[in-house]
Design brief:
elongated; 6 helices; single chain; Barstar-like_sf; three-stranded parallel β-sheet; alpha+beta; Barstar; 230 residues
Length: 230
């Protein structure tokens, strides 16, 4: 965790407790375990940022947490009181460990997780995409995107699959309809994917509903992406 206003590291840790929590499940403190505390120990910081880094110390994600108060230090354990929002996806803690572990993400890796974890994976995808400087702009890597409809059984899973189809494993291409519009609008017209090949489309329709798929299809086609349902 860093003090953004002064660009100093406050604490480094291998484990974090109390930050990735279900809505309403706010522990009194956030605890950094197997931690190393900075020599400079301000009692209170107003612009704290929690950074997720990999083994090379490259940032892969971040959370703007705002005001924190130093709560105490014990061997390998540092506590802070957080006043800002915490991550509402408890499963994200384990997903971040995977993202920071070093080996490249594999295609379809998110599908190996329980379905209830797909929203957390999508959250990590979106957070990391922006934290590493990509933004909603840029262009998709593939002229043709391919989705396997049989594996897309939740809306979060749809956006996980779409991001991967457009930009490879860990890629982001929207997390809701408005964000999808932003991604398509930000990409130059000649650099947008031209076609979405949607295999087993009717399995997706059964799982997600015709209304949602109609809305997605309308957005894609508005920006010139042809949807081929098979």
């Amino acid at each position: 965790m860093v003090d953004e206003s002064r660009a100093i590291v406050l604490v480094e840790a291998e484990e974090l407790e109390g930050f990735f929590a279900s809505p309403g499940d706010d522990a009194p403190e956030v605890v950094f375990r197997r931690a190393k505390l900075s020599d400079e120990r301000p009692r209170q910081v107003e612009d704290a940022v929690l950074e997720i880094v990999n083994g090379r110390r490259d940032k892969v994600g971040e959370y703007l947490v705002g005001r924190v108060i130093f709560g105490g230090f014990h061997p390998k354990r540092v506590a802070f009181r957080f006043f800002g929002d915490r991550c509402e996806f408890p499963e994200a803690a384990a997903i971040w460990r995977r993202w920071a572990s070093g080996p490249p993400l594999r295609a379809g890796e998110w599908l190996r997780l329980p379905v209830r974890h797909h929203p957390a994976w999508l959250h990590v995808v979106q957070n990391s995409w922006f934290a590493t400087g990509h933004g909603s702009g840029g262009c998709a890597d593939a002229e043709m995107m391919t989705l396997n409809g049989a594996s897309v059984v939740t809306k979060a899973g749809f956006y996980c699959a779409l991001g991967e189809a457009a930009r490879g494993p860990g890629g982001y291409f929207g997390s809701n309809l408005d964000a999808l519009v932003d991604c398509l609008r930000s990409a130059p017209a000649g650099k947008r994917p031209a076609t979405l090949l949607w295999n087993d489309f009717f399995s997706s329709e059964e799982a997600l509903g015709a209304e949602f798929l109609d809305a997605v299809t309308a957005v894609l086609e508005e920006f010139g992406v042809i949807v081929e349902a098979r």
